[in-house]
Amino acid sequence: MNLSPSPTRNQTIALGLRENWRAFSLLVLVNMLVGGMVGLERTVVPLVGTEEFHIASGLVVFSFIIAFGVVKAFTNLFSGVLADRYTRRNVLIAGWIVGLPVPFLLAWAPAWNLIILANILLGISQGLAWSMTVNMKIDLVGPSQRGLAMGLNEAAGYGAVGLTALATGYLATRYGLRPEPFYPGIVYTLLGLVLSVFGVKDTRAYARLEGFRMQVASGEEKAHRPGLLWVFRETSFRNPNLFAVSQAGLINNLNDGMSWGVFPLLFTAYGVGMEGVGWIKAVYPVVWGVGQIVTGPLADKIGRKPLIVWGMLIQTVGHAVIGFAFLPPLLSGLAGSVLLGVGTAMVYPALLAAVSDAAHPSWRASSLGVYRFWRDMGYAIGALMSGIVAGLWGLVWAVHLAGILTLVSGLLVWKRMKPS
């Protein structure tokens, strides 16, 4: 990719949130719809597995999360390469097209294998669409407002996850597990596709402009344009900050993958009703989402590392509140979910901003793809771990193990990551 913008482009585009607020706002709306597609599954699908398909094995029930996590992770890995080759906008549109069958399969699939197929498609869709909304917002705002941009992006996405999880719990209580709870997904996919096709403009020129400015400031004659293997190694292992960020992202989403599968079954076993489970599942991503409106710009002011370390520690406390059941089940679930949401809100925009800090614009999209590969592999690892642990020692031990891993991850960031 040639980082030097054309003179015409250089005159007509500018980096910054204020300068690009219309395009940015549209992408926020699109990402709300992307997040809502994940929220469809948070409350109801594990119970569809146990109650409608009569699946007794936790590992089999959690298989839909494993499928989603693995596919989304690998799609993330290649999304940056696809964006550079086919433009961000085209990849975003492709993500919505792949996601079109998902709500129909979730609502009417006659077999569990088709639910897994829906999650394979959802993983591809999310890996393409969510990755592009992240990249496009980073392109638009430039280096000084990345934390704010990521806070707003993730707030929109995960706020929609939580509100949709709450809505599906209400619909399931009123109408049953299927098909009504999945009707909102039909609206999300159609509206998301229409907005992406007719409203969203590509942002690759903004990344070129930022890279050109960095090239001029550093005196470089030509920007480094590495291949995906080099970026994978740099992001995964060689760069201390990128390594710390990648492992923290993995553990953070391990928590989410665990809660996705375990919480509906655990709190139903404790006697909490469907609406109560819906509230527990909604509080976590809503607090996570809304909190990023504050923590995103805070990451720009105080740096990325403090938010990441303290966010992981607060999540550890949330696991303890749920795992040790200090309170009645519903209150324990709500309190623990609030703490998990606060901790994740601190971590999420700081992690994305830290990757953007460390990666040059010429390979930033690929580096973000590698980071999101490791982060979203956490869904699969968390679900797999939870299924195995629940089968051996019970559901609550999946919560305990996730808490221990989160504590270790936070300490690793404190030890390895340099402030930025």
Automatic annotation (TrEMBL):
Q: What is its main location?
A: membrane
Top-level taxonomic group: Bacteria
Protein name, UniProt field: Na+/melibiose symporter
Per UniProt, residues of the Major facilitator superfamily (MFS) profile domain are 1-204, 241-420
Can you tell me where the transmembrane regions are? Answer: 21-40, 55-78, 90-108, 114-134, 155-176, 182-200, 307-327, 333-352, 373-391
Topology within the bilayer: Multi-pass membrane protein
Q: Which InterPro entries match?
A: MFS, MFS_dom, MFS_trans_sf, MFS_Transporters, Sugar_transporter_CS
A cellular component annotation (GO) from this entry = plasma membrane
Recorded GO molecular functions are: transmembrane transporter activity
- Point out the coiled-coil segments of this chain: none
Q: Which organism is it from?
A: Siphonobacter aquaeclarae
Its subcellular locations are: Cell membrane
Tell me the keywords, alphabetical order.
Cell membrane, Membrane, Transmembrane, Transmembrane helix, Transport
